[in-house]
Amino acid sequence: MDKSFQIQLEEIIEADILIGIPSYNNSRTIGHVVRSVMAGLAKYFPRAKAVLVNSDGGSTDGTQEEVKKVQIEDFKTILTSHPVYPIQKIVTPYHGIPGKGSAFRTIFEAAKSVNAKACAVVDSDLRSITPEWIELLIRPIYEEGFDYVVPLYARHRFDGTITNSIVYPLTRALYGKRVRQPIGGDFGFSGELAKHYLTKEVWETDIARFGIDIWMTTLAIAEGYKVCQSYLGAKIHDARDPGSDLGPMFTQVVSSVYGLMGNYQHLWKEVKESQPVPTFGFHYEVGLEPISVNVERMIRNFKLGVKDLMEIWRKALLPETARWLDSISRLSDEAFSFPQDLWVRLIYDFAIAHHKGSVHREHLLKSMIPLYLGRVASFVKENQESSVKEVEEKIESLCKVFEEMKPYLIERWG
Amino acid sequence: MSEIWRTAIVASFDKFLGKVVTFLPNLLAMITILVIGLITAWIIKTLLFRFLKAIQFDRVSERWGLTHILSRGGIAYSPASLVSRFFYWVIVLITLILGINALEVAATQNFIAQFFSYLPNLFAAVIILVIGYLIAIFLGQAALIAGVNAQMESAKLLSRSVRWFIIILSLTMALYHLGIAEKVIVAAFSITFGGIVLALAIAFGWGGRELAKDFLERLYLKKKKEDGDHNHLSHL
User: In terms of domains, do A145 and A191 share one?
Assistant: First the structure.
């Protein structure tokens, strides 16, 4: 831990609530996020001693200065009372592998140091965060006795494709909890859970990067902490190129999911069905901006994968699965369809190959990207005219296939 | 006369007997070395095989594509079995050489001395080849996956090029290490590699000027088009 950071924490001595904001070059949006957090703390927890920690990855665009200069001069203008205790703000660089997980580690350390009761982390590139998010992420822990709060957003029907096609159905089938957006990005957690996270030696792995979200959620579920979800409304990020980091994002998330499967195999093998988790917040519909998706390009990438990567995939797949894949790659773009059963079988087969180490793990995960794009293309094609509710029903049906085919996974896992 | 004959025969016989008496301990030494060597080879083979099984060498080899190559080459042994057998035969060979050396036959002494001084080079060359081959497989596969994910139609060609470049490089290094026509090998490699680079440079810079121009134009336009219709999905 940074020395000046440690001194600042020691000066605070103790806090009830700690809010962490990981950042890297987010000067455009972080001011709004900090203001929302401060307003949320003042409005909903005016009597609590609160600390805001910005864990920064070495921004060069003035992110840290932006955090330092944000002040709410007149709380009445945002209909909140002045907090009893001033909200402490700490800006600190994090150490270790550059990534969200390393930033979170610094926040957990801060939570442990000030002995915080309830904590939350929110992304620094959010444009849609409101003070109510702080209440929804903190109150279930601060007052209701929960340990972990997962966000529930209103999203575009084609958004969150890794969540919808892999992480949500797989986590639900494995651990038996219907946590709809396990890698939502903004979470609430108890101080106890933060301390527990720090006991794990995972900070040199993919968990220190994009894998942190699924790791936190899985640990909370698998190790018996009380988990709930809070409806936060729409999640709107700062504009950036979403396709540019698909590779590392996909491999880091899936590698973490598969790695955790190995750690908790004794647990998920015993889970037979899934249960809903308590949900807080007022559910409402929001209008979302349309998304442009280039389906033909994704299908082209899938077909190229079948042509060139089959030799690698065969090490993970059963012969009939490989033949099935081969047959769908010969369909025209108009007739292209990637069946749910095949997708679930692939996810399970690759999990088994990852577990057994029959293919170099990084190669295995990277080689899955054309398959993922094929499945996404098919999903988008099938749901061009569907409503959000109908899309949600399709995801529910995919989850059921994951649960039904779990015996296949257990049998082949060994 | 008969005395002379008798003396000559006895002397000859004595001489022969003397040689046999001198040779017999060497022969016995050779037999002992062979027996001990064969037993040692068998023990090492068994222990090594068990050790390789314990560290899951076969699984690692499968991951690296070695098992596939072996089966494609018609070798039915598992990699663990193959490695342990290799060491068995190396020990048998060394035992044989030591055995022959124990006979103290002048003709073989020089050959054996040369063989033993050359042996480290041979081992180093084998190690260079094996490591080079494994790196070639690994990087070839990495290039193939990266190429496919970048939507390169020629990903396989790229992968093969990477693989063969590393194999040729390691072969050159191994031959250089063995001292086989060192200068010729280095010159041949330099000429071939330099030639490939020069050919590509000429093809793109002069001979295929128009083609290169078209290619780059199409690439640029395609990129611009794809930037325009990029997916705006948020994957997480």
Answer: yes
